[in-house]
């Protein structure tokens, strides 16, 4: 049998690395468009969260863009960049390089089994 090695979340959810964003500018354009979609969704479902979301998102965008070169980006199997693009970076934790996968929680949908 063939074994596959990699980050569990990436493998288990069949995420695919995307190279669609070659620079900060293209990623910023994507992110602004994606955030508009999330704001529209929030206005419909949780209007009281919109202002806090916008404020926090500006801070988060600056953080992400400051570390853009260290990030890997992943999409679902469909490779649809109109949906959420997950971010992964490696951080030093207790002397080990650990993969950290980041998602925008407002862009996730809960599935109940």
Automatic annotation (TrEMBL):
This is Translationally-controlled tumor protein homolog. One of its GO terms (cellular component) is cytoplasm. InterPro entries: Mss4-like_sf, Mss4/transl-control_tumour, TCTP, Translational_control_tumour_p. Pfam families: TCTP. Belongs to the TCTP family. One of its GO terms (molecular function) is calcium ion binding. It comes from Ctenocephalides felis (Cat flea). Residues 1-113 form the TCTP domain.
